[in-house]
Specification:
It comes from Rhodococcus wratislaviensis (Tsukamurella wratislaviensis). By secondary structure, this protein is of the alpha/beta class. The two termini are 16 Å apart. A 7-stranded mixed β-sheet has the order 7-6-12-13-14-11-15, with helices on both faces. A 5-stranded parallel β-sheet has the order 9-2-1-10-16, with helices on one face. Strands 3-4 form a two-stranded antiparallel ribbon. It has a domain of 179 residues: FAD/NAD(P)-binding domain.
Length: 468
């Protein structure tokens, strides 16, 4: 029987393992940490009984993943839950841009900009599954849906700051810019509209759900499925060199390129080692978990019902803050993402004490403490929040890279999303998953299609291994 070892039990490592096991391969997953999950782990950081997601929190691409949707993960305990409002972006005026699963309802709330919103994102939402089939694969393939890709290209190639200006209102402009800011790259650069356009299309197709019981439930479901297929998982087993591994036919590495260099060393062909060493990492994330008595008292009513809240002010302010962090400058008012997962999944709370998930975009390797800046942004749009906080836990960029070594410098998306690395990652190659070492493949978020709890990096890499 063909055997495989998977190093790293994040969602991509587990997706690779499941794919191989489905094809009759004997699979063992080796995880350095004591708990599996990588970016999909959940913990009680603040108050007993209050459950926080450690990194990933809201999963539009998980619910819409072409691979995960084939796995019947609900039979292994995964349940998606949706908030009443998918996302909201408040402004200092007290108004907000609001994203709902319904395209028509979103357009209605955007008023005069509703028609333009529908024109831009309606065609993408109606073809989301077709787009996902093509976009969540390596760039070197024959497109199955060229028409849908052409529609996306018109919306994805401009800078997000430019595309946002097709809207008249600050609410619509800020709503799009806040979603586009998930690219964590200056919004004045080409192709920065791409991530926002796809996330909006996913929202109008699958919504922005959370996993019941925390993001750890995604991990647990994949692990359960793998076990049912005969796969094994070993935790607390750091791999410092490929020579530490027992013989196997296939080795899958759910590692950042730097991690691959560290454990493979001179076994890598010189050209691959150079490419991995030159791989660019992006800005960092500073994470804060809060336990808030009674929840956040948002001024805007839609924010009180939103699973995700983006705090960045208006379009000009978002552009400026994302530009600064790319230059290594910490803004006084950083872009902050808030998760209120308990609104869809009340079991995460302890009575009236609710978990609030938050992180700010900060410069790569930022060594300061952004806790007050994050709470300050919340206070800006929800005065009185500070007095309600009964527990807090912060995780710096350095702590992020300890929590998950793939998060180099606090980069939670495992690589800068510049135009080249958006499509050609981790190096320019026909088969980006091959490391140049026979039987050894990289399957982390540094490979196509990039970050997100969709499992497609691992799935694609496993298929490449099976082909070879």
């Amino acid at each position: 029987m063909t055997t495989a070892l998977v190093v790293g039990a994040g969602p991509n490592g587990l997706a690779a393992a499941v794919t191989l096991a489905q094809h009759g391969v004997e699979v063992t997953v080796i995880e350095a940490a004591e708990t599996i999950g990588g970016g999909t782990r959940s913990s009680e950081h603040t108050v007993p009984g209050v459950l926080h997601d450690d990194c990933s929190a809201v999963h539009p691409m998980g619910a819409g993943s072409p691979y995960l949707r084939t796995l019947d993960l609900d039979s292994h305990g995964l349940e998606w839950k949706w908030p009443e409002v998918d996302a909201a972006h408040p402004l200092d005026t007290g108004s907000a841009g609001v994203l709902l699963r319904s395209l028509d309802d979103t357009a209605h709330l955007l008023g005069a900009d509703g028609r333009r919103w529908r024109q831009l994102f309606g065609p993408l939402a109606s073809r989301f599954d077709d787009l996902a089939q093509d976009l969540l694969r390596p760039i070197a393939h024959v497109p199955r849906h060229p028409g849908a890709l052409a529609q996306l290209g018109l919306r994805a190639l401009p800078p997000a700051g430019t595309l946002a200006r097709v809207f008249q209102s600050e609410e619509a402009r800020a709503l799009f810019a806040g979603i586009a800011a998930h690219v964590i790259h200056p919004l004045t650069r080409p192709a920065t509209s791409s991530v926002g356009a796809m996330m909006i299309a996913a929202a109008h197709t699958y919504g922005w759900p959370v996993a019941a019981g925390g993001s750890q439930s995604i991990t647990n479901a994949l692990a359960s499925l793998l076990g049912s297929l005969g796969g094994k998982i070993e935790t607390g087993q750091p791999v410092r060199s490929l020579s530490d591994l027992p013989p196997s036919d296939i080795v899958m590495l759910d590692l950042a390129p730097r991690g691959v260099v560290d454990i493979a060393g001179d076994l890598l062909p010189a050209r691959v080692r150079r490419a991995y060493s030159r791989y660019r990492y992006g800005p960092g994330a500073f994470k804060v978990d809060l336990a808030v008595d009674g929840g956040v008292p948002w001024i805007n009513e839609h924010c009180r019902r939103a699973g995700t809240v983006h705090l960045g002010g208006n379009l000009a302010e978002i552009i400026a803050s994302e530009r600064d962090i790319a230059r290594g400058i910490m803004p006084s008012r950083p872009f902050v993402l808030i998760g209120q997962q308990y609104l869809a999944d009340p079991d995460r709370s302890n009575g009236d004490v609710h978990p609030i998930w938050a992180y700010a975009h900060v410069p790569h390797g930022y060594s300061g403490d952004a806790t007050d800046a994050i709470i300050g942004q919340i206070e800006r749009f929800a005065p009185g929040t500070r007095e309600r906080i009964v527990g807090a836990f912060s995780r710096s960029t350095a702590a992020m890279s300890v929590y998950n070594p793939n998060y180099v410098g606090g980069d939670i998306i495992t690589g800068e999303n510049n135009p080249v690395q958006l499509v050609l990652r981790p190096r320019i190659a026909v088969d980006p998953y091959r490391t140049g070492i026979d039987g050894v493949y990289i399957c982390s978020a540094a490979t196509p299609p990039g970050a997100g709890v969709h499992g497609m990096c691992g799935h694609n890499a496993a298929l490449a291994a099976l082909r070879n």
